[in-house]
Amino acid sequence: MGSFLDDAPAVMYGNTIHKNNGYDPGSYTYYPIAIIGAGESGIAMGCRLKEVLGFDQFRIFDRQAGIGGTWWINRYPGVACDVPAIFYSFSFCPNPKWTTLYPSGPEIVKYLHGVCDKYRIMDKIQLNTDVRKCKWLEEEQVWEITLQHLLTGVGDLSEYERAQKIREQGRESVYVSEERIRAKVLISSVGGLVEPKLWPEEIPGKDKFQGRIFHSARWDYNIDLKDKDVVVVGTGCSAAQFVPRLTKEYGAKSVTQLMRSPPWVVPRQIPPFGEKGWEKWSPWLCSNVPGFAKAMRLLIAAGAEYDWRLFGSEDYNAKERQKLEEKLLAHMKKIVPKKYHEILTPDYGVGCKRRIFDATWFPGLNDPAVELTTLPLTGIGENAVTLGPGRTYPDPNDTKSSTPSHKVTIPADVIILANGFQTTKWLHPLDITGRDGKKLHDVFEERGGPQMYMGMALDGFPNFFTIFGPNTATGHSSVILASENMVNMALKFIKPMINGDVALTEIKKEAELEWARDTQSALKKRVWYTGGCRSWYQTEEGWNSTVYPYTQIWFGLRCMFPTWSDWDITYTRKGQVKRSVKKVLKVVALAAMIVGGVRLRRKLQGKSLITLFKAYIRVAFLTGAGLLQTVASRIG
């Protein structure tokens, strides 16, 4: 590890934000650190740069019109976190006054704004700014980044919607201007749940439909659902939160929910003292009882880690899954109407897909205005949709099943897509070009699928870190914990760069390939492959770039203690001198210990242990000082 490089580029660019060649047409602004994304990962990185490193010469760019990432853009009715808030928050900035165990999206956004205010990074965030291209300039050893400044609010549209707007209304309906900047360190904090899945093109008739179609991740509150016939495509976590509200709170006449296959539904955890008791007492307890909030966070984290037992492929894991599955099926049959029991009984192992932690969806299926079906959507008319023939679940060839598979046409005024996100296209649609003109997505394709060492580094892309990249998500824990771990690890590499000791940091190719090989190999032994399901975790070819196959405890330890030999670190002249001095000091210290020990052995035979210890310290200090003086005179 380590090589020597003259530090001319560091001198040229420095460690402060500044404008270069103001009158020149090629003028650019230089940022020592550029961060893409103002969601929880980008916010965590900005806060820790200031708190841990005392460094504030960075800028966070986000295309959306507000701060919060996925929590800013997802505004569907009932949007909330399914991880307890006391755990789904930053360890360095706890919130003692959550109003509930499972906070709503608006409350999470309010919390993230409060974090930005506390650490004074609000002025470091630039919104309505789309990062389009990032290119590594080898000769100057910086990243050149192309920014496109957007009309306010346009960044809240999806990539597809913006492209459509440009086709119909021209570029000026989306973009204000373009700018190129440069940065020594580039950090991507782009989340995985960014780009909604598009309309399934194999379903005809969309252009004939007289009603409205939108994705739950881009909820359109301008549409009045009162007395409307609504069709919802999907039964994931989002749909489970908003479907029960459509009839009771928004007055929909009917809701037909289309399910491809049933999810495993886990009853939401009841907090201590019950829902109302927790809401009443938890703010006081967390604010006034020392250690209460930390103890609760630890208990929740420990419980989440215990759930990791569900993901293995050993007999013990299978038995644990079976015990839980029996409980979950009993819970389902107790709550939902009997007509849904068959289609809500999964044929795969619990944990194979994202579980739904639910308090309202199952009870909501008792609403006579709500209909759940596994008939596939096969066509669209002007004010109706056609379902069937056939069925998506159970297997249509199962003659013993009584589940409907006939063709039916039902009225439809609004179609809501809750079919998820483009989760297998990591860092899409960013165009990132590394050393030798290699594009990041081309490297992914060449190697079989999206992959990065520990989800945060790729060879050929120096001084580039990704927070919450491929294979870092968990099916059981808090994503904020994973993000914090990666932020803390990245800081270990960023610190010497902003101190001027390191010019380049890059993961070794063999280390990245071995990490990816081990990850994919371990995943194939876990429930995501052995559980008998296909999920949004995987590509059509079976490459899983989403899930981390080990515990978060292990991942946290790997982040706390990096394997330095896996990295190529190029030191500046200043850094090389510091390393040499440290090596000399280690040699001097060792020599002082040896020489001091020899001298003591001769002079203090028969003395007490305390006397020997005191004398040893004195002799070692004097010996070390003498050796250092000799080394200094030789260097001079």
UniProtKB/TrEMBL annotation:
The name of this protein is FAD/NAD(P)-binding domain-containing protein
Any single GO molecular-function term of the entry would be:
NADP binding
Key word DNA repair present: no
Entry's Gene3D superfamilies? FAD/NAD(P)-binding domain
Entry similarity comment: Belongs to the FAD-binding monooxygenase family.
Q: Name its species.
A: Hyaloscypha hepaticicola
Which InterPro entries does the record associate with it?
Answer: FAD-bind_Monooxygenase_sf, FAD/NAD-bd_sf, Flavin_mOase-like
Alphabetically ordered keywords of this record:
FAD, Flavoprotein, Oxidoreductase
